[in-house]
Design goal:
Lipocalin, mainly beta, 10-stranded antiparallel barrel, 11 strands
């Protein structure tokens, strides 16, 4: 019976969803107008069956740094909702996609692809006309 359960678990798409809870450290690159800058990255998440909470973090590069502000997203099926109950992203098959508004003219597109004890992070700052401003990419690891 345990063997059947294990096989069914391996076949099922959402049998074991990634858990982002904990501290994540890594490195990446911040690209602006074709030039890149090496960065150290730290993020902290808490996750349960109802919420994905970004507790904060930072991206620290030699020329620029940025604090990653806390955010709380409610899970509704595969959708992520902000505090106003507006759909701002999705969480499906270990891929998290979030759209954050920075200003009236700029959107921030975040993609996190979880793979075991690491995740690949992409943050694209984009004008409403579609032109890219910043592209931040990195790989972060946990000590779970």
């Amino acid at each position: 019976m345990k063997l059947i359960a294990a096989i069914l678990c391996m076949i099922a798409v959402n049998c074991s969803a990634a858990d982002l809870s904990g501290n994540w450290l890594g490195q990446g690159e911040w690209t602006y107008q074709g030039s890149g800058d090496h960065c150290y990255m730290k993020m902290n998440f808490e996750e349960n069956e109802n919420f994905l909470i970004r507790k904060g973090g930072y991206i620290d590069c030699s020329m620029i740094s940025m604090t990653i502000e806390p955010a709380r997203y409610r899970k509704k099926g595969t959708q992520l909702l902000n505090q106003d109950e507006v759909v701002v992203g999705s969480y499906e098959n270990n891929v998290i996609k979030i759209k954050e508004d920075n200003t009236d003219n700029i959107d921030i597109w975040i993609t996190i692809v979880v793979n075991g004890l690491h995740f690949d992070y992409t943050e694209l700052w984009q004008k409403k006309d579609g032109s890219a401003i910043y592209n931040i990419q990195g790989r972060l690891f946990t000590d779970k």
